[in-house]
């Protein structure tokens, strides 16, 4: 059976030896190992994938590894090969959802899409054509609290592990952001320079930008400032119309988001303060 161990801890000698000895003593075979020593923060980050020939369970391994983790002050996660379940949130733009659905059905997303939730009905046909349940949760200023509680109820009902904001055009409350800390990913259009508000691609056209791009990041109470997982940038020039910039930008959004989701689901992303370590 396949497992993945991820951990972070203060730098010190003997960490890797302790991990490999633990696995060797249990007859495990390491199939992939990556580590990063952050000399600036004095921290070590590690991801190890391994197989066990015996009847080990993820709970057994977690309990046993707890002793090693305690000796080194580790924060760790151990997961088996079960694909995480996604709840995807959308509004009216379908390009990111369409890309996620395609990758899911092709088997390259590393996750199962369990449910699509939207504050509009526009993308119901796309979700249902792919065989994914679609739930309409309308949001108004007066019903925002009830809508967010409905979302939390759906997360529990469908046993989802990750919330993906695939161009969901509502700002989540600080309280909800904190409840979803580390398990919600958003995609944000980003330019050099950045443009906020309505019609960002038209603003970019008016300023004659040379690059457009997108940023996938974890959701935090600080709007669009969460730890960055992935960014995609495309070069453009004066010949691009606003419509063409929109097309390029949406391609960048879909690509950055799908990479971030896959890397998260493969346990390749570790939080490092306000940033991330991504083992590709």
From TrEMBL:
The UniProt entry annotates the active site at 224
Q: Which domain of life is it from?
A: Bacteria
Q: Does the keyword Cytoplasm apply?
A: no
- Give start and end of each Formyl transferase N-terminal domain: 85-261
> What InterPro entries does UniProt report for this protein, alphabetically?
ACT-like_dom_sf, Formyl-FH4-Hydrolase_C, Formyl_transf_N, Formyl_transf_N_sf, PurU, PurU_ACT
User: What EC number(s) does the entry state?
Assistant: 3.5.1.10
Q: Which Pfam families match?
A: Formyl_trans_N (PF00551)
Q: Name one GO molecular function term.
A: formyltetrahydrofolate deformylase activity
Q: Which SUPFAM superfamilies match?
A: ACT-like (SSF55021), Formyltransferase (SSF53328)
- Keywords tagged on the record: Hydrolase, One-carbon metabolism, Purine biosynthesis
Instruction: Give the pathway annotation.
Output: Purine metabolism; IMP biosynthesis via de novo pathway; formate from 10-formyl-5,6,7,8-tetrahydrofolate: step 1/1
UniProt keyword Amino-acid biosynthesis present: no
Per its record, the protein catalyses: (6R)-10-formyltetrahydrofolate + H2O = (6S)-5,6,7,8-tetrahydrofolate + formate + H(+)
Described by its record, this protein's role is as follows: Catalyzes the hydrolysis of 10-formyltetrahydrofolate (formyl-FH4) to formate and tetrahydrofolate (FH4).
What the entry lists under HAMAP family is as follows: PurU
* Family of this protein: Belongs to the PurU family.
Q: Under what name is this protein listed?
A: Formyltetrahydrofolate deformylase
Species source reads Amycolatopsis rhabdoformis
Give the source lineage, highest ranks first.
Bacteria, Bacillati, Actinomycetota, Actinomycetes, Pseudonocardiales
């Amino acid at each position: 059976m396949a497992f993945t161990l991820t951990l972070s801890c203060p730098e010190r000698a003997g960490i890797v030896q302790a991990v490999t000895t633990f696995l060797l003593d249990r007859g495990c075979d390491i199939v992939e190992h990556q580590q990063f020593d952050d000399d600036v923060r004095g921290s070590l980050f590690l991801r190890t994938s391994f197989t066990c020939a015996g009847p080990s369970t993820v709970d057994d391994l977690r309990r046993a590894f707890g002793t090693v983790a305690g000796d080194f002050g580790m924060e760790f996660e151990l997961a088996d090969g079960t694909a995480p379940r996604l709840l995807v949130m959308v509004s009216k733009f379908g390009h990111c959802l369409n890309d996620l659905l395609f990758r899911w059905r092709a088997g390259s997303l590393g996750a199962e899409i369990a449910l699509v939730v939207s504050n509009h009905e526009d993308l119901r046909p796309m979700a249902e054509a792919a065989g994914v349940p679609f739930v309409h949760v309308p949001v108004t200023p007066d019903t925002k609290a009830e809508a967010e509680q409905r979302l939390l109820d759906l997360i529990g009902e469908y046993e989802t592990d990750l919330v993906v904001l695939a161009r969901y055009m509502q700002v989540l409350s600080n309280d909800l952001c904190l409840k979803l800390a580390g398990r919600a990913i958003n995609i944000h259009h980003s330019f050099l320079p950045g443009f906020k508000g309505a019609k960002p691609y038209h603003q970019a056209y008016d300023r004659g930008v040379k690059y457009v791009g997108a940023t996938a990041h974890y959701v935090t109470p600080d709007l669009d400032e969460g730890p960055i997982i992935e960014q995609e940038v495309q070069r453009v020039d004066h010949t691009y119309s606003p419509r063409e910039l929109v097309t390029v930008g949406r391609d960048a959004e879909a690509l950055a988001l799908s990479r971030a989701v896959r890397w998260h689901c493969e346990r390749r992303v570790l939080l490092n303060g306000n940033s991330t370590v991504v083992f590709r």
